[in-house]
Amino acid sequence: MSDFMQVLQSVAPAGKFVTKGQVVAEFDRQYQLIRLDDYRSSVEQNERSYKSLDANLEVQRKAHDFSIEQAKAAVEKARLDIKTIPVRSQIESEILKLQLEEAEARLKQLMREVPYQRETERTQRRIADLQMAQSRTELKRAEMNVDKMLVTAPMDGLLVMETTRRGSEFAQIQQGDQLFPGQMFARIVDTSSMLVAAKVNQADVESLRINAPASLRFDAYPDLVLPAHVVSIGAIASTGGFRANYVKEIPVYLKLDK
Question: How far apart are CA 258 and CA 256, in angstroms?
Answer without folding.
Answer: 5
